[in-house]
Structure formats: C-alpha cells, structure tokens
Amino acid sequence: MSKPMLSVAGVKTQYGKIIALHGVDLDVNEGEIVTLIGANGAGKSTLMMTICGTPRASEGRILFEGRDITHMPTHEIMRLKIAQSPEGRRIFPRMTVYENLQMGAAMDDYAHFEGDLERMFDMFPRLKERLHQRGGTLSGGEQQMLAIARALMSRPRLLLLDEPSLGLAPLVVRQIFDVIRELNAIEGLTVFLVEQNAYHALKLAHRGYVLVNGSITMAGTGRELLESPEVKAAYLEGGA
C-alpha cells in the first residue's frame, strides 16, 4: 500500500497549559476524502491549524508526501501545494471577488489564472455574477464558495476544508458538498474535511475519524461510521 499523502502521528497541541490535542494519529491517502467529525470544542479546527503550522505541535510529527512539515513556516507549507479554506471563511472583505481569486492564484504564480477562473465560474456560477462586488457584501453561502474557490486557485494537491457547511442553508450546503465530490471524482483532488455536520460529511467521505476532547475515539469508512450506534447517538440524532 502506498504511503499516506498526509500523516499525523502522535500530535499534541497546547495553548499555554491547556492541552487541546492529546496525541492524535490519522492518515489521508492520495485521492481520498477523509473527514474528521466531532462536537464543537473537540479540537477539530485546532488540528487543521496545527497541520498548517499555527499553532505548532508540541509533540508528534506531521508528514506531507513523506516530508516532515511539523516545524515549517506556514507560507512554506502552503507552497507544497496544500490549500486551506478556513473556518469562518476569512475572505478579504474589502477586496472584490476577482481580487480574492487573484490572491489564491498568487501561490501558483498566476500561471493558469484565466483557465482556472473559468473553472471556478463553472463550479460556482454565482461568483461570476458577483465578480466585481466586494467580498464583505456577499451572502454567507457566496462567501463560502469564494473561500473554496480562492483555495482551489492555487491548484492544491491537498485541500483542507474547515467547517464548510457552518451557518449555511441546506440547499447551499448540498451544492458545496456536490462540488467537493466532483473535484475528488473527476480531478482526483485529495480532501481533508473538518465538519460538525456529521451526516453530510460521512456520506461524502471515503473514511472518517471521530475526535472527542482532543483524542481520536473511532475510525472507519464513511459508511461504517454512519451506521455506528455510537456515532448515531452522539452526532446523527440531535445529539452533541
């Protein structure tokens, strides 16, 4: 079996004396969609940010395509063809949609800018309609589309998505998850997805992990976790 594209081994992260992650182990293989589910405050976003270098892991190792990135500066990690669409979208609100997409393309030195712009418009037609509008004036769903499109403009090999469904209407959530599925199926994009909406995430993912209070408590295929009584009770039946 080939080596994982992303490997997190024994990663511990802390904020001062507060330990947020307790020795997390997980792998993302090339061409997979892997999801990490868990309640609010479980440490999901902390893991995503630790992979990107802020905060740093206090113990353990993070490997990308066999290369140790645990102590690399964030901008160097991004240059390895990793892109993140962070929690809360974090687009540039005063810049137009076009300028936000330009910022994403900067990591690829604008080498494929025009062609990639058209790809984004095919995936998210709304962005074409809003091209010269400031990011901060878009709806929440449009901002999420922009955040994902901005990440994709860098032509990543690994896409990190942090809570893409947060606060969005069900129809928009479905549209965004359909785009992720299509990118994976057609272009073979590898995706690591952190998500509170366990049902959508596990339906989409090849494999999943459950994070509880900073520790991985379960792992399996998306289907196995969807059918697990523990996951159903905690995440799929109006639980945590």
Automatic annotation (TrEMBL):
Q: Which GO terms describe its biological process?
A: L-amino acid transport
Keywords (A to Z) from UniProt? Amino-acid transport, ATP-binding, Nucleotide-binding, Transport
Q: Which domain of life is it from?
A: Bacteria
The GO terms describing molecular function are: ATP binding; ATP hydrolysis activity; branched-chain amino acid transmembrane transporter activity
Q: Which family does it belong to?
A: Belongs to the ABC transporter superfamily.
What's the protein here called?
Answer: Branched-chain amino acid transport system ATP-binding protein
What the entry lists under InterPro entries is as follows: AAA+_ATPase, ABC_branched_ATPase_LivF/BraG, ABC_transporter-like_ATP-bd, ABC_transporter-like_CS, BCAA_Transport_ATP-bd_LivF, P-loop_NTPase
Give the source species.
Aquabacter spiritensis
Q: Does the keyword 4Fe-4S apply?
A: no
SUPFAM superfamilies, from UniProt?
A: P-loop containing nucleoside triphosphate hydrolases
For this protein, the record's Pfam families field holds:
ABC_tran
Residue ranges of domain ABC transporter in the record: 6-238
